[in-house]
Model the fold of this input.
Amino acid sequence: MLINQFLLLGAALFSLGVYGVLTRKNAVLVLLSVELMLAAVNINLVAFDRYFVDTEAAGQVFALFVITVAAAEVGIGLAIVLLIFRVRKSANVDEFDLMKL
Amino acid sequence: MIGTPIFDVFSTLLAGVNHASRFNDGGALAAGAWMIPVVPMVMAFLIVFFGKRSPWKGWVMATGTMLFVAIYGMALFLMNLVEGITYQGSVWLSDVGTTAFGVLNVEWGWMVDGLSIMMYFLVGVVGVLIFWYARGYMEDDVRYTWFFASFTLFAGGMLVLVSAPNLIQLIVGWELVGVSSYLLIGHYWEEHQNSSAAIKAFMTNKVADVGLFVGAIIIGVSVGSFRFSEILGVVEGESGDSTLAKYAFWAGLAIFIGAMGKSAQFPLHVWLPDAMAGPTPVSALMHAATMVTAGVYLIGRLFPFYMNDLFASDVRTVIIIVGAATLLLAGLLALVQDDIKRVLAYSTLSQLGYMTAAMGAGAYTAGLFHLFTHGFFKALLFLGAGSIIHAVHSNNMSDMGGLRKYMPRTFWTFLIGSFALAGIFPLAGFWSKDEILASIQYDASHGGGAVASTVLVVAIIGAFVTALYMTRTVYLTFFGKYKGDAHPHESPKTMTLPMVGLTIGAVGLGALNIPGITTWFTDSLAARFVAPGDHHATSIEWVLAIIGTAAALAGIALGYRLWHRDAAIQRDRDTFRIPVLYPLLENKYYIDDFYMGNIIRPVRGPLARAVDWFNSHIIDSVVNGAGYLARGLGKTVYLFDQRGIDGVINVSGFAASFAGGMLRLFQTGRVQHYAIMIFAGTVFLVVGLIIF
Done:
């Protein structure tokens, strides 16, 4: 069984996610792109799990963990975006330069 | 013993003395006597540094020191009276090794024998009374603390001199006395006259010191040691073919020239009257116990050397002539002085002449006994004069007169001092002067010949002159009518009590050595490693005592005739002039003028020019050269500082600022920019990891 096609799929998906994170202005879409990157990571984990014929299925378990953490992160991220939107009337990432002193 | 490591030996050293001493070694009291010179020397420096903050601005420290010396000296004196002490302690300060004349070791030691004990006692007791007095006399002085520091140094220097067991340490003390006398005579240096008096004293002493050095070197080289015990051991033991015996006359003469300077013998006496420029307590101490007694002391220390026929006995003829000349010529000068302190100064000269003449006549005990009693009554007279000066604010007797009524205590003590000086029975001066006359008479009939007989006559005339000028002083000062403008008053107790103390000495100390009755002083002075070998009167010389007293009474009678008048005549009588003699006396025998015109001026002019040339050409060019060098060096350092060090600091500053400016651009505050950088960094690391 070849692994390349899965890895290429993961890489493509990850690149898409990075592109989305860096270019999208809407904070919700940035979060969506982050989910894409996490999904790419999950594909890689599962693919490697099968490729190495892991009897413990550690890759799949890790993928489950990542999905859980991603869900929590999105929950928090959306909450922050919602609060900022309420204050600023905007979810545009360009306008958030609060980190600059 | 010689060559033992530094500070290792604290023991009785009798090496070189070739006989066992007949005397007690003095025990712990003598072994601890090193403190007598050391305590004042140390204290003098402590007063300089801490005096101003101590009680009475240093007076307590100074007087406490003298009190210590007085008590120690008195204890030794009493012990020496009971049984003679001879002790010599030494500390070897260094071991230089073999030199041209053997092994040169620098020795600090302390001599505790009859002679030095007598001096400890004299310096201590007279010193403490004068120090006590000085508190009142110097009360408002600007340099009060400094005065007591140098005064303590003066006494300390004398004690170093007296305690010296070798010629080198003696010279150290000798010069310490010289330098501190310079400081004290020039105490009121604001007036040029006073500082030149100080220079005169110092320079005259220096001239004489050359003699002392030459004598010390001759003796040191020919004996191979500078220690008195070894020098006198050679004198006692050898039969006359030693190296020392060959050069003894010249060595003895050279040493005597040194003694002439310190003891102000004619013609090196010129500094002593000018030394009156110092404060009166200084004059008192200088004339009584320290400094001028040093010369007589030195002759006494080397006395066996001068007595032994194989050694320097010929020098004694010179000594007795110089002494006789001084006693008469200085006595006559005292007759014409108006300054009361100068009268006393010339009287000191005259009395020192007596002592020197006695030494020359081979009368060790008589000379030193007169030194001892004279110390008391001369200090008393000076303190009395100081008390008068304090009251009338003038040194001149033409501004005094009639003070008997205003200052009774000063009058009575001064009167007793004058009688003691004149040699009136039964005061101390009578006994010591009589003993000198007796000794000179003895010498005249035992080898002294015509010289000694002449000196005896001179000494009797001297006694007459002494009584005459003291009568004059007493009448001009205390009798008649007051001629000054001040309001005379009796001096405070701090000043009169020490005078009373000295009066007791001036009255009673003669009892120490009454010929035929008491021999305490003779016995205590005889406690030496090498017997002095003098002759001293064992019974009273009735004829001489009567002649001496008659001369003194005649002097008083003539003085009474001339000066005991009412105010107007008293003044006339004071200007009473003997045609030829008076101008001679007035001008001090032209000796000062002779020195000034023939020695000082011809030397001073070229010397001053030479020094000026040296100063402006050599020293200035050295100084200028150093200046240029320093300036050049300064420039180089400046450049290096500006360009080099400053450059480095500025560059690093600019670099930090530039880097900060650059980094600032990355801090946009936007999340996505940070994310780009994180991503780029990750890529960078991953690529790096793959490649390397």
About this structure: Chain A has a mean pLDDT of 88. Chain A has three helices and no strands. The longest helix of chain A spans residues 58-88.
